[in-house]
From TrEMBL:
<dbReference type="GO" id="GO:0006281">
    <property type="term" value="P:DNA repair"/>
</dbReference>
<dbReference type="InterPro" id="IPR023198">
    <property type="entry name" value="PGP-like_dom2"/>
</dbReference>
<dbReference type="InterPro" id="IPR036412">
    <property type="entry name" value="HAD-like_sf"/>
</dbReference>
<dbReference type="InterPro" id="IPR050155">
    <property type="entry name" value="HAD-like_hydrolase_sf"/>
</dbReference>
<dbReference type="InterPro" id="IPR041492">
    <property type="entry name" value="HAD_2"/>
</dbReference>
<protein>
    <submittedName>
        <fullName>Phosphoglycolate phosphatase</fullName>
    </submittedName>
</protein>
<dbReference type="Pfam" id="PF13419">
    <property type="entry name" value="HAD_2"/>
</dbReference>
<dbReference type="GO" id="GO:0008967">
    <property type="term" value="F:phosphoglycolate phosphatase activity"/>
</dbReference>
<dbReference type="InterPro" id="IPR023214">
    <property type="entry name" value="HAD_sf"/>
</dbReference>
Length: 217
């Protein structure tokens, strides 16, 4: 199915990195601040209500989650989440899905070029690069903060200029799969990530474990 692929572009959170526990903690801390400051009403959150925001850029998340929140307060809460997530990576608390690094290594050995593309900040990307030695696997690493959080399908143009050839996109959210709506690329949807039912229906293939990617290729 993907025999002509030269470059594999991989999402990170929900694809390689299981950010569930750390993101839920960070979100609840930020929301507690909003409640204490009188900007939000107290409430209990189901995990799925929180993890649905994984895969969004911080800008898009807050524009959808609390669009009427004052920009200064929104920025403070957003930075709080970012700092907590950054600390978890810097202190060795981040967790990759089982088999993630082994899969990246196997794909490298097959001759594929691997590119990291995540809706995250540069500090977050660099912390995870250092924590897991990601530079050993990725030929290029891109975070949306460096592009003012524009959609991934627009950032793809930059990647295509740096890595000519045919492409495969691997991710767990519509932001990944929609790249194929704008460019001639193959797509693999990760059902084990944070997408909603049906969100990945247009993907060319679906996997339930990152290790299945190696079997597809």
């Amino acid at each position: 199915m993907f025999k002509d692929v030269r470059t594999i572009i991989l999402d990170y959170d929900g694809t390689l990195h299981d950010s569930t526990k750390n993101y839920i903690h960070a979100f609840k801390q930020a929301y507690a601040y909003l409640v204490e400051a009188g900007y939000a009403a107290p409430r209990d959150w189901a995990d799925a209500e929180i993890t649905k925001w994984l895969g969004y850029s911080s800008k898009a998340m807050w524009e959808n989650f609390m669009p009427d929140l004052d920009e200064e307060i929104r920025s403070k809460a957003s930075k709080m989440i970012g700092l907590i997530l950054l600390e978890t990576a810097q202190t060795g608390q981040a967790v990759l899905y089982e088999g993630a690094l082994e899969t990246l290594q196997a794909l490298k050995e097959k001759g594929y070029r691997l590119v990291f593309l995540s809706n995250c900040s540069r500090a977050y990307m660099e912390a995870h690069r250092e924590s897991f030695g990601l530079e050993r696997y990725f030929d290029g690493m891109y975070c949306t903060e460096d592009f003012d959080f524009i959609p991934k399908y627009e950032i793809f143009e930059t990647i295509r200029a740096a890595f000519p050839g045919s492409y495969l996109i691997v991710g767990d959210r519509f932001q990944d799969i929609e790249i194929a709506e704008h460019h001639p690329v193959g797509t693999v949807g990760c059902r084990y990530g944070f997408g909603f039912p049906g969100e990945l229906d247009s993907a060319d293939a679906l996997i339930d474990d990152i290790r299945e990617l190696n079997d597809l290729l």
